Amino acid sequence: MTGRVSFVGAGPGAADLITVRGAKRIAEADVVLWAPSVIEVECVREHARADAELVDFSRVTDAEVVEVYRRASAGRLKVVRLHAGDPSLWGGLRDQQDACQRLGLTTDVVPGVSQVSAAAASVGRELTTSDVAQSLLLVGPDTAEHVEEFAAHGTTMAISASGSRAGLLVERLRAGGYADDTPVVVAYKVSLPDETVAQTTVGELEACVKEHKLYRTTLFLVGKVLAQPAPRRRVPVVEGDEPVRRPRASKWAARANRPVVKSTGDSASAAAWSAVHDWQETARTKRSAPARPKPEPVGEPLLELVVDVPATASTGTSTGTSVEASAEQDAKPKPKPVVAAAAKRKPTTVQASTTPRKPSGTRTKKNKRVN
């Protein structure tokens, strides 16, 4: 058995947006590498064991992180490195996997909810539609200088860039063909208690960023698909129309409408962990479930053969003799089957004749009458 390093997507930041598999990896970990500036503290403390080592990798160098991997290889430890959002997006995943493989460590990746998805969900919009935009372009901080080239496609863009360079971003968006009235969603620390999510346009983007004092890396969603939907016209109800029939209640609807037992914890997201509480405790204490005893083999069941003999059966015409014979039969033990097939036979009923026989005599052979 070798050590294992799991790269877990912690989601956009909220503790209850981590996946169940990601929470399980944290509960099993001996060492957890994370950055409290982008991941909520509750997300780690709620799942990690009490004796787990917590390392803030934003305050250590890359060499010190590799040293943690080396200790995991030597001590066969389980390490979790948390990534904000999804590990496959701007997380430097490949370099870390290469370092772990050189040390002989087993690695696995647990996906997470990306910040792009969380920002779109916060404003209730979809990023791709069949009539406006059918594709999505992801632009990271290192490729922000190519925004003008990407903007020429005229589709939805998700740009992760520094807020302090919002003015330069606006110029490149205009040069790429985006009009000033193109909708823009500005998201910073989305899903966290101190999140900033604002809806603006390309022409007012720079002023919006300055108003909210966003100077660090911020997510910008740009595209016509983010426009406010037109309000739907309500159709007036005409008297005499047939009322809408309500569906009949089913057993599934009854189960769904059961009252929810609220959690007594202080955390707002404590109810999210109740569903996985059992396996969390098992992973923390490292207890193995006791093996269930195997059932002993049971022999073949005994069959009883019941012979149904009426109490009135007798060989004579006397009533007393019939009662005595019945009493003797009741006193005798019932026979046990010797062959299993005998149980399938129907009980035999013996009935004595009550008509007296004629006295036996010599029968004379009748001769034919001769005329």
From TrEMBL:
Please report the stretch or stretches of sequence annotated as the Tetrapyrrole methylase domain. 5-205
One example of the protein's molecular function in GO is: precorrin-4 C11-methyltransferase activity
- The answer to whether UniProt assigns keyword Transferase to this entry is yes
Keyword annotations for this protein, in alphabetical order, are:
Cobalamin biosynthesis, Methyltransferase, S-adenosyl-L-methionine, Transferase
Which biological process, per GO, is one annotated for this protein?
cobalamin biosynthetic process
| Biased segments, Polar residues type | 348-357
Q: Where is the signal peptide?
A: none
Is S-adenosyl-L-methionine there in the keyword field?
A: yes
Q: Which InterPro entries match?
A: 4pyrrol_Mease, 4pyrrol_Methylase_sf, 4pyrrole_Mease_sub1, 4pyrrole_Mease_sub2, Cbl_synth_CobM/CibF, Siro_Cobalamin_biosynth, Uropor_MeTrfase_CS
> Which intervals carry biased composition (Low complexity)?
311-328
Pathway participation: Cofactor biosynthesis; adenosylcobalamin biosynthesis
One family name in Pfam for this protein: TP_methylase
Region annotated Disordered, chain positions: 239-371
UniProt similarity note = Belongs to the precorrin methyltransferase family.
PANTHER family associated with the record: COBALT-PRECORRIN-4 C(11)-METHYLTRANSFERASE, SIROHEME SYNTHASE-RELATED
Q: What is this protein called?
A: Precorrin-4/cobalt-precorrin-4 C11-methyltransferase
